[in-house]
């Protein structure tokens, strides 16, 4: 067939998987690339050499331990990068200037990957399952504080007691009459009726012998008869009758008296005053003198023991009746433990917090919510509750701000539970039923799906290991303690990689680490969809999967991803323009962490990169740097017409350092690159590569006024074999050649073109004349044409390469293409 001109106007499909090289029938094939290495597409269609990195400083534990980057954004113009390491946090200002501050941290190196965070203004909350939620506050640009968040109330539930003693069972098999013997005196009479739990084993306490021994009935066998301290607990609350001394006001201190019922009916001689108490059977002992009888709202102090069926007593509050059946009354007995201080008591419709345990039968508490009355509450009608966030239960895994609440999710013991604070009161998690009170919900699913992350979108999005859920209130209403709808949205599951919010979508890594999905609301079916962003480039995540994500909005819309093997991936992402374009970026080392912060009109991309320098492993803080001009700026130009724009090469090296010398220099110090071969750009001209000496210095053969020195990297844009219809069908599989190639560049200097056989052609950029001699080459914008030779069967692949530390931006490719049968 005759020669045809084929134009590839954009690379907005990015690099495509080798699995799709045969899919010339899909629309995005024409906009894709076979390879994008150290070059990424832009929204407008072209592909450009990525920015190099500017060296900032080594991490604190540079050679020995990993660190992690976390952004702290006070405002769009005032942001900081946090370097979290083993036991410390270093605060770096935007722009990569001198470190602002360093503070102590409770997080070890092993915990760093599990830290999640959320921020409101100058306060950040951080979560990790082994450490209480921390609060990081900014007081000034150099003054920060990191400490445990001072919650007024954390979420609490009935959890029983974990007692500090080993327990030995007489037998671990199902049956009655088994004995449980403790290594210390930890049992109380009020434990009768409670459940002893260890692993899958379950027993009910049926009798109290002493503080070290109880009788149990085993309903589910134990795997061992030896239960170590911490491996067992007593479930539910003490089985005692609880009598509050007062019902209000809030913040007042009251007495909570515990008593135990005995198997007899009581008859009182009167409801008030000095009374005689008669039992239907002999249940009194001489030791009861000094104890109190409690029933409904009445209390009477036993003063005289007459017989096993009769005592005398004096009332301190009146009884409602003169007759009480067994279970409806009690005599004060042991129910409180010292570790109950700080726990919460729900009784008679109110809430109290235990301040002190005065005796085994009496505790003082402060009223947090008024009680409805002072009647004695029987067992199971009141509860003793403790914080669900603890070292034993684990602390929340994830945090977010949603609908003016601090919302936490997932812990070791409560992996599917979500807790929301009171509205606009981030430190108060007191549950209630009013719309502004705190809430707690547990996701019900057919399998255990631990919560991985929370995200605040149109509704609250919950990423779990097994699937994605949404939480929302009723129609046009927020989530409240009594108004929530939890809906499963998909079953992809989420890996332990913190998602990023891109527009109205939550972009997350599927649990295998290989797929990146974007969870966003769809009006057409009133739910969330999670399309795969890596479907055309599934191979891009090979190398251990993705371990970290970051989102950059300026100057280009780019989703950055760190691969487990240290490679950096980019996805130029604009859903409105249907742009999803992946590319791969390699440096002399391994990227370990990445994060972005705003800096006015642009966003800075920070990285921690592990490199081998002078034979040792080091970790450096570096920043992708888009801006670097090869000429020193002169005085500000104020005339008209406007002055020519300053040439911007960008940082065209990695781990680079720039030097400005008004008087010129030939010797430069780069001790962070000792022993490395480096690229050098002097006043815009590329110098021969050199190896940095042991002293950290290098010398160039000419005086330079503005110099850039750093590690080299190579950019490649690989073109796919085109598809064109012939008289007999497809061009694929036929003999074909590209006889002429026209490359349209923007602000580019130097490039090479390689064909499928590796033959190189240098793209001519330099223009000669009296006005350009003795000057650095100016960036070129326009078309460059080269001719190629040779036929090949079934392929016509070209690769555009920039191997020099110079800019390259490819806008379009035009081929003179010919196919023969």
Would you kindly provide a written description of the structure presented here, covering whatever features stand out?
- Helix content is 0%, strand content 50%.
- The chain has no helices and 67 strands.
- The strands form 13 sheets. Strands 16, 24, 25, 26, 27, 28, 29, 30, 31, 32, 33, 34, 35 and 36 form a 14-stranded antiparallel β-sheet that branches. Strands 1, 5, 6, 61, 64, 65 and 67 form a 7-stranded antiparallel β-sheet that branches. Strands 22-17-18-21-20-19-23 form a 7-stranded antiparallel β-sheet, with no helix packed on it.
- It starts with a strand and ends with a strand.
- The mean pLDDT is 91.
What would the keywords be for this entry?
821 residues; mainly beta; seven-stranded antiparallel sheet
What is the C-alpha radius of gyration, as a whole number of Å? Answer: 36 Å
Biggest beta sheet summary: 14 strands, antiparallel
Strand content: over 45%
Overall strand count: 67
**General form:** elongated
- Class computed from helices, strands and strand pairing: mainly beta
Span of the ends, CA to CA: 8 Å
Q: Uncertain regions: pLDDT < 50 for 5+ in a row?
A: none
Total number of helical segments?
0
Helix content: under 10%
Question: What is the arithmetic mean of pLDDT?
Answer: 91
């Amino acid at each position: 067939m005759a020669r045809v001109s084929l134009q590839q106007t954009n690379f907005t499909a990015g690099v495509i998987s080798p699995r799709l090289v045969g899919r010339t029938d899909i629309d995005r094939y024409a906009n894709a690339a076979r390879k994008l290495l150290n070059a990424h597409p832009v929204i407008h269609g072209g592909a450009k050499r990525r920015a190099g990195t500017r060296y900032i400083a080594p991490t604190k534990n540079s050679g020995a331990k990993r660190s992690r980057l976390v952004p702290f954004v006070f405002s769009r113009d005032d942001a900081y990068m946090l370097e979290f390491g083993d036991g410390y946090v270093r605060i770096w200002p935007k722009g990569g200037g001198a470190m602002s501050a360093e503070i102590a941290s409770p997080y070890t190196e092993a915990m760093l990957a599990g830290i999640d965070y959320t921020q409101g203004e100058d306060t950040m909350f951080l979560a990790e399952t082994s450490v209480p939620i921390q609060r990081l506050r900014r007081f000034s640009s150099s003054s920060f504080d990191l400490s445990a968040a001072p919650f007024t109330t954390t979420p609490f539930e009935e959890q029983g007691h974990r007692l500090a003693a080993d327990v030995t069972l007489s037998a671990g098999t199902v049956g009655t009459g088994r004995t449980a013997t403790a290594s210390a005196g930890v049992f109380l009479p009020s434990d009768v009726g409670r459940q002893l739990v260890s692993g899958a084993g379950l027993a009910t306490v049926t009798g109290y012998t002493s503080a070290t021994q109880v009788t149990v009935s085993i309903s589910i066998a134990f795997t061992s008869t030896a239960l170590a301290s911490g491996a067992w607990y007593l479930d539910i609350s003490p089985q005692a009758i609880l009598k509050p001394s007062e019902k209000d006001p809030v913040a007042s201190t009251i007495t909570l008296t515990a008593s135990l019922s005995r198997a007899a009916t009581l008859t009182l001689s009167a409801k008030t005053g000095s009374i005689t108490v008669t039992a239907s059977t002999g249940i009194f002992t001489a030791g009861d003198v000094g104890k109190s009888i409690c029933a409904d709202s009445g209390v009477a102090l036993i003063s005289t023991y007459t017989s096993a069926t009769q005592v005398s007593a004096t009332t301190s509050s009146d009884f409602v009746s003169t007759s009480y059946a067994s279970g409806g009354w009690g005599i004060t007995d042991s129910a409180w433990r010292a570790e109950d201080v700080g726990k919460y008591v729900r009784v008679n419709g109110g809430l109290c917090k235990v301040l002190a345990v005065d005796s085994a039968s009496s505790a003082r508490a402060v009223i947090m919510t008024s009680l409805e009355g002072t009647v004695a509450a029987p067992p199971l009608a009141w509860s003793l509750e403790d914080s669900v966030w603890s070292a034993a239960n684990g602390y929340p895994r994830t945090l977010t701000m949603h609908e003016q609440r601090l919302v936490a999710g997932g812990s070791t013991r409560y992996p599917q539970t979500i807790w929301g604070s009171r509205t606009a009161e981030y430190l108060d998690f007191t549950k209630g039923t009013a719309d502004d009170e705190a809430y707690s919900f547990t996701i019900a699913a057919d399998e255990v799906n631990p919560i991985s992350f929370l995200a605040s979108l149109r509704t609250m999005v919950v990423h779990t290991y097994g699937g994605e859920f949404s939480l929302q209130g009723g129609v046009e209403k927020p989530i409240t303690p009594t108004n929530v709808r939890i809906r499963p949205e998909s079953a992809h599951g989420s890996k332990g990689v913190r998602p990023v919010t891109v527009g109205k979508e939550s972009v997350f890594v599927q649990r295998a680490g290989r797929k990146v999905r974007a969870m966003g609301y769809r009006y057409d079916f009133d739910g969330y969809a999670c399309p795969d962003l890596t479907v055309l480039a599934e191979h891009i995540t090979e190398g251990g999967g993705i371990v970290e994500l970051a989102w950059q909005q300026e100057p280009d819309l780019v989703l950055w991803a760190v691969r487990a093997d240290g490679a950096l991936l980019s996805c130029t992402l604009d859903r409105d323009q249907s742009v999803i374009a992946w590319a791969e970026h390699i440096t002399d080392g391994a990227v370990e962490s990445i994060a972005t912060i705003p800096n006015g009109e642009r966003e800075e991309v920070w990285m921690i990169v592990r490199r081998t320098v002078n034979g040792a492993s080091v970790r450096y803080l570096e920043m992708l740097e888009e801006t670097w001009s090869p000429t020193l700026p002169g005085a500000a130009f104020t005339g008209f017409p406007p002055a020519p724009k300053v040439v911007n090469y960008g940082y065209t090296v990695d781990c680079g350092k720039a030097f400005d010398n008004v008087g010129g220099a030939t010797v430069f110090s780069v001790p962070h690159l000792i022993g490395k071969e480096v690229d050098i750009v002097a006043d815009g001209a590329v110098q021969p590569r050199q190896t940095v000496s042991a002293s950290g210095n290098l010398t160039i053969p000419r005086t330079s006024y503005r110099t850039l020195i750093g590690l080299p990297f190579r950019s490649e844009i690989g073109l796919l074999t085109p598809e064109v219809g012939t008289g007999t069908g497809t061009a694929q599989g036929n003999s074909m050649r590209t006889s002429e190639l026209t490359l349209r560049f923007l602000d580019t200097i130097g490039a090479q073109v390689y064909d499928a056989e590796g033959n190189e052609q240098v793209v001519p950029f330099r223009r000669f004349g009296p006005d350009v001699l003795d000057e650095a080459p100016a960036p070129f914008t326009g078309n460059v044409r080269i001719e190629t030779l040779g036929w090949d069967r079934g392929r016509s692949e070209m690769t555009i390469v920039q191997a020099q530390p110079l800019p390259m931006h490819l806008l379009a490719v035009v081929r003179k293409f010919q196919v023969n049968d």
